Amino acid sequence: MKSVTIKRHLRESFKSLKRNGWMSVAAVSAVTVTLLLVGVLLSILLNVNKVATDIENDVQVRVIIDRGTNKKQEAALKKKLEKIDGVKKIEFSSKKKELDNVVGVYGKEFNLFKGDDNPLSDVYVVSATTPKKTITVAQKAKKLRHVSDAKYGGASAKKLFSVVASIQRWGITISLLLLFVAVFLISNTIRITILSRKNEIAIMRLVGATNGYIRWPFILEGAWTGLLGAILPILIVDGLYFWMYGVITASLSGTSYSLLTPGTFLWEIDVLLATIGIIIGALGSGLSMSRFLKI
């Protein structure tokens, strides 16, 4: 395609966007809403997967000691834990320290449980040699005397992955529905453009213009519509994530879990949103051309 032809197609696509006015705004708005929801959903899913993986790979087992267990019994329990195959390291965490951790995460309201009112138990934090050994260590520790419970990350991860799978199924369904609506609105916008320029198109066909020469300005118009519709979602998703990252990271401080850092994946979502916008815009235009011009 010659450079003159390319410039002509670009110029016509911009003119058509301006000419359609509110219909173009409606199409851009449809793309904006669609991509905003898709971007937010993607950000949530990626981070839920990240936290679930962190939990699953957590090699620590929290062995909760029965309340009322004395120091001698706790020492004996520690020796039994050390004999379990796969145990790498054992650390003691008093119920006071456990409460301090709760206060640090959830707020000073929990300070009222200090002293004799502390409902928490002493804990042995057992580190396993590998994530696979974690389950075995937890199961064996739970059977020991003076152990109330033994918790590990993998159990929570299984439930979390089940929730993620449900969110993914519903998310894909909703996203496809929204993308269909966006394509429909864009195709209607292009259809009006075609009807308003039917005489011009008829003349071009009479003088021998090729199908591609007639089609490209409309496809470009749809692509511009999709790209314009992607700009606002990209800005909102990026800004919202930077804010949420700061808030949630502060809450997760002191744990082994974390969110994805903005620089590692946001640019990928931005590129994806822009690409989806361009594709659904061009697709909507292509459908209009094929269906109503019969080219």
From TrEMBL:
Among InterPro entries, the record links this protein to: ABC3_permease_C, FtsX, FtsX_ECD, FtsX_firmicutes-type
Q: What is this protein called?
A: Cell division protein FtsX
Q: Which family does it belong to?
A: Belongs to the ABC-4 integral membrane protein family. FtsX subfamily.
PANTHER family under this entry?
CELL DIVISION PROTEIN FTSX
One Pfam family matching this protein = FtsX_ECD
Keyword entries, A-Z: Cell cycle, Cell division, Cell membrane, Membrane, Transmembrane, Transmembrane helix
Domain named FtsX extracellular is located at 59-148
Mind telling me which residue stretches traverse the membrane in this protein? 21-46, 170-192, 213-236, 272-293
**One Gene Ontology cellular component:** plasma membrane
Query: Which source organism?
Result: Ligilactobacillus ruminis
Q: What is its main location?
A: membrane
GO BP annotations of the record are: cell division
Q: What task does this protein carry out?
A: Part of the ABC transporter FtsEX involved in asymmetric cellular division facilitating the initiation of sporulation.
Superkingdom classification of source: Bacteria
- Where does this protein have coiled-coil stretches? none
Q: Where in the cell is it found?
A: Cell membrane
Q: Where is the ABC3 transporter permease C-terminal domain?
A: 173-294
Membrane topology, as annotated: Multi-pass membrane protein
